[in-house]
């Protein structure tokens, strides 16, 4: 049970912002929201995580709704190299990650 | 390098053979996780170490799977009497206790 819901696929034009939604309506108070992505033949790459505040780093921004039931990962200027499967995962620190099927993002030139 | 290193990158074995997969975590990382990823699926948890202690092995699919981390650093995942359904990518991740996990690129195991 992945415990999060994501659309199976999305397209985004190169240079535009990619907004990837995630639903985690049953998230517990001590669970974080983690985002990873996986490019073919590579291991999952950590992107960003947050508890309840919005977060930003050099890769992306994470917007978490006030009730914490959903979040959005934003890649501000998508490039072809951002084509990957994106996983939204909820979990406590230092515990195994439970992956779902993720969202396959295709960035189109 | 500074990342998680796994070896070999690819392994082909005949059904019934034993295999050993190695994971070198990021230096100083206390926690180490093993995952199995079947083709077209997300990774699935196998087992978890904190230093040398194996705290959770609930994801190991059978008693043919065994993992160890004797000195709290390098870890080995061993599969005995391999079967075709063991074919998958085996991923290792490490973390400082409260920090996100960082993954290696995995070992792709093919059982003929």
Task: Please give the structural blueprint.
The complex is a heterodimer of chains A (109) and B (112).
Chain A lengths: L8 E5 L4 E6 L8 E7 L6 E6 L4 E2 L4 E4 L5 E6 L8 E8 L11 E6 L1
Parallel strand pairs in A: 1-9
Antiparallel strand pairs in A: 2-7, 3-4, 3-8, 5-6, 6-7, 8-9
Chain B lengths: L4 E3 L2 E4 L5 E6 L6 E7 L6 E7 L2 E4 L8 E4 L6 E5 L8 E8 L6 E2 L3 E5 L1
Parallel strand pairs in B: 2-11
Antiparallel strand pairs in B: 1-3, 3-8, 4-5, 4-9, 5-6, 7-8, 9-10, 9-11
Question: Would you give an account of this structure?
Answer:
The complex is a heterodimer of chains A (109) and B (112). Chain A is mostly beta strands and 109 residues long. Helices cover 0% and strands 46% of the residues of chain A. The mean pLDDT of chain A is 95. By secondary structure, chain B is an all-beta fold. Chain B contains no helices and eleven strands. Chain B has strands at residues 5-7, 10-13, 19-24, 31-37, 44-50, 53-56, 65-68, 75-79, 88-95, 102-103, 107-111. Chain B is globular, with a radius of gyration of 13 Å. The A-B interface holds A 2, 34, 36, 41-46, 49, 87, 93-102 and B 4, 31, 33, 35, 41-45, 48, 50, 56, 59, 91, 93, 95, 97-106.
């Amino acid at each position: 049970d992945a415990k999060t819901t994501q659309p199976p696929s999305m397209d985004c034009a190169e240079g535009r912002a990619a907004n990837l939604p995630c639903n985690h309506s049953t998230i517990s108070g001590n669970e974080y929201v983690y985002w990873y992505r996986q490019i073919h033949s590579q291991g999952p790459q950590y992107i960003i995580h947050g508890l309840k505040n919005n977060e930003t780093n050099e890769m992306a921004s994470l917007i978490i709704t006030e009730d914490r039931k959903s979040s959005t990962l934003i890649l501000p200027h998508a490039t072809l190299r951002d084509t990957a499967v994106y996983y939204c995962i909820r979990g406590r620190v230092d515990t195994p990650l439970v992956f779902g099927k993720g969202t396959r993002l295709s960035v189109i030139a | 390098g500074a990342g998680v290193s796994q070896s070999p990158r690819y392994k082909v074995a005949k059904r019934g053979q034993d295999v050993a997969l190695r994971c070198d975590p990021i230096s100083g990382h206390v926690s180490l996780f093993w995952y199995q990823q079947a083709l077209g699926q997300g990774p699935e948890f196998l087992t978890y170490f904190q230093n040398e202690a194996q705290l959770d092995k609930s994801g190991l699919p059978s008693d043919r799977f065994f993992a160890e981390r004797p000195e709290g650093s390098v870890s080995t995942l061993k599969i005995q009497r391999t079967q075709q359904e063991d074919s998958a990518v085996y991923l290792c991740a490490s973390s400082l206790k409260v920090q996100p996990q960082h993954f290696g690129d995995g070992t792709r195991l093919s059982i003929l």
